[in-house]
Design a protein that fits this description.
By secondary structure, the protein is of the alpha+beta class. The protein is built from 12 helices and 19 strands. Strands 10-19-12-18-15-16-17 form a 7-stranded mixed beta sheet, with helices on both faces.
């Protein structure tokens, strides 16, 4: 067998495409674009081997008003220590928190009692940077996140020293509200990411202008399945290297409505992306709303002002989609950004499940890398998903009718889609045009089921040789 492999490998020609640079997705932003009432920084605390690499990020809310907090956490059975600790804090505080601390380089996952103790130590050290709390019931007001290698303990002494160096009167204090500080914090999130993922936007509600900004990280181990924190007002189960994200706004939003809006947004953004189909032990999305933009404004609440709430929910969802797409664009070794859309499904869940299956199929993703319009792989993935039970007969499920299914490749330039299957009948495909579409960095795959009116979108990337190289020696 080894002789045969050597003979084949000596004669085969393999074309390895260079991974395109993604640096252009990160651009400087004016400091005025960021929400009021936050101080941030990123620093090197010795978690990562490279002495120049930022590996601890800090975010503090300095608003005089109570800061609301919401979170969606991984549903992985092996939840990391920072996930468990953050969930406990946000639950005990009924959706209030004023700070976030994050480290990269070590996930603090599957680390037993020591891991829990280390996460709490990071919380306490960051709490000490905050002004005295106006609510004595809140023993801790810091949420914690970690990302990196699983199964290793944090160099906690180094991390605590780094956090403590940011005390108010310390000469090493680099906490600030400007773009440089936001960028440092975003870089402290990074593991195999190739660029910091940082965005900001401005929006208005009721004549008041608000700002929203955020950062996330992720390039591998990306297929999030996150649900709301264990707060009493959290909704039930939702569809949904590690994905971490933090979104900050200077709007005032009630804790229950912030959680409701985040859960809705996550379902349509971060839970609809995939790089490699693997869910992390640490996936976390946090939102803080500190009300610093308007001192006298009432908190936005879905029950007392549904119109304002709907505007905020829409802004948060659109912003979350923008951040989620950046993760896919920076997928490990990715050369393609692919939008997978499933239409005509009987339910949203069915459309979402099929789009997810197509996006995670190794056969589909390798064909996309090879720029091969192998639509048979798309159909095979589509047909492998069991559909939801029929409302009129819970013991039975809808069935895909192959004679109603159509598949097309969608160019990103707005030109007509290339139909490859129409209502179950294969088209005489223009392979030259198909190749031209799949050579582009951005394109779409559209599947029409012809069974209903529901649709869902997933964002994914291809599998390349570079992905295997990165993950073959990730720990070294």
């Amino acid at each position: 067998m080894s002789h045969l492999f050597k003979r084949l490998s000596s004669t085969a020609t393999v074309t390895i495409k260079a991974t395109p640079s993604k640096a252009h997705h990160h651009v400087p932003l004016p400091s005025s674009a960021f929400p009021a009432g936050y101080l941030l920084t990123g620093l090197h605390a010795g978690v990562k081997k490279n002495p120049g690499a930022l590996d601890v990020g800090l975010i503090l809310s300095t608003s005089q008003r109570p800061t609301s907090a919401a979170a969606c956490f991984t549903r992985n059975a092996f939840k990391a220590a920072p996930v468990l600790v953050s969930d406990q804090i946000i639950t005990q505080n009924a959706g209030r928190a004023r700070a976030v601390v994050v480290n990269s380089g070590c996930a603090n996952a599957v680390t037993g009692r020591q891991g829990i103790d280390d996460a709490w130590a990071m919380v306490r050290a960051t709490d000490a940077l905050l002004p005295p709390s106006t609510n004595p019931k809140h023993a801790h007001e810091t949420l914690v996140m970690s990302t990196g290698v699983i199964g290793q303990n944090l160099p906690i002494a180094n991390i605590l020293a780094g956090i403590q160096s940011q005390a108010q009167n310390s000469p090493s204090n680099s906490l600030a509200p400007d773009f440089a500080a936001w960028e440092r914090a975003a870089r402290a999130f990074m593991t195999t990411d190739t660029f910091p993922k940082l965005r900001a936007r401005t929006f208005s509600i009721g004549g008041v202008q608000y700002r929203m900004a955020g950062m996330d990280k992720g390039a591998g181990m990306i297929h999030p399945d996150m649900g709301p924190a264990s707060t009493s007002f959290a909704s039930g189960q939702q569809l949904h290297a590690t994905l971490l994200g933090c979104i900050l706004t200077d709007a005032a939003v009630s804790p229950r409505s912030l959680q409701s809006a985040l859960t809705y947004a996550v379902e349509r953004s971060f839970n609809s992306i995939s790089v490699d189909g693997d869910m992390s032990t640490n996936d976390t999305i946090l939102v803080l709303a500190n009300g610093a933009a308007a001192a006298e404004s009432r908190e936005i609440d879905e029950e007392t002002d549904s119109q304002a709430y709907e505007v905020f929910k829409k802004e948060l969802t659109e912003f979350a989609v923008d951040l989620a797409k950046l993760v896919v664009r920076d997928g490990e070794g990715a050369t393609k950004f692919v939008t997978v859309t499933v239409k005509g499904a009987p339910t949203y869940k069915d459309a979402h499940s099929i789009a997810s299956r197509i996006s995670t199929s190794a056969l589909v993703k390798t064909a996309l890398y090879g720029e091969d319009a192998n639509w048979g792989r798309i159909l095979a993935a589509t047909g492998s998903i069991p559909l939801s039970p029929l409302p009129t007969s819970p013991s039975e499920a809808s069935q895909i009718d192959p004679t109603k299914v159509s598949v097309s490749f969608v160019p990103s330039d707005g030109s007509a889609p290339l139909l490859v299957l129409v209502r179950g009948e294969p088209e005489n495909v223009d392979e030259v045009r198909a190749k031209a579409i799949l050579e582009q960095e951005d394109f779409g795959v559209l599947v029409e089921l012809g069974m209903g009116t529901e649709e869902a979108t997933y964002w994914t990337c291809d599998f390349s040789y570079e992905y295997v190289r990165i993950n073959g020696d990730y720990r070294s």
